Amino acid sequence: MNRIRPRQKRTPRFEALEGRLVLSTGMGMGVVSHHAHALVRSQPQRQVPASFRGHVSVSGSTVTTTNLTGMIGRDHFTGSGTGTMSGTIFQGGDVYLSNKQGTIHLKLSPATVTQVGKRIRQTVAVVALDATGKYAPFIGSPGELRTWNVPTKANATANFSGIFTIP
């Protein structure tokens, strides 16, 4: 008896790459070039979880995060961050992370706000502006912070989590 295997659902994606056409179906990237007849493969990007916690203080519209600790994937980091708020909506900022293997400077964009029932959910886009050491390939990598838990108590610990796309 013949078994028919189900087809994997893949969506084709096109992008320009130095005058070449890239067709990606999720398994690897094949590059077709009108300059050369060689097939070139690049590393697929992957999404890894990111989660951090630290103490947040607000002075006027300035937000400062200290004692920031957490992980991107399996790598542990410590650091700090600054940003601005307009009312209760985050307007953007910077996060500086480091460990023994290198540093990462993340730029946080203004929050995208969605209404979920009676609550407001803020999603913040993140991009790695600068990195050193092991994390130098992260430069330009995007991410997204999806969960913000910033308590109103002055000494309480805030939690942040989301995903980061790395090469």
Q: What is the total tally of β strands?
A: 12
Q: Domain count, please report it.
A: 2
Helices, by number, come to 0
Spatial order of the strands forming the largest sheet: 4-5-6-7-8-10-11-12
How much is the average pLDDT? 79
- The gyration radius over C-alpha positions equals 20 Å
Encode the helix/strand succession as letters. EEEEEEEEEEEE
CATH architecture descriptor of the largest domain: Beta Barrel
Strand content: over 45%
Question: Strand pairing plus helix content: what structural class?
Answer: mainly beta
Low-confidence stretches: 21-37
The name of the CATH topology of the largest domain is: AOC barrel-like
What features would you describe in this structure?
By secondary structure, the chain is mostly beta strands. The protein is built from no helices and twelve strands. It has strands at 13-17, 20-24, 29-32, 46-59, 62-72, 75-86, 89-99, 102-108, 112-116, 119-131, 142-149, 157-166. The chain has an eight-stranded antiparallel barrel. The protein has a three-stranded antiparallel sheet with strand order 1-2-3, with no helix packed on it. β6 and β7 (89-99) form a beta hairpin. Mean pLDDT is 79; it is low at 21-37.
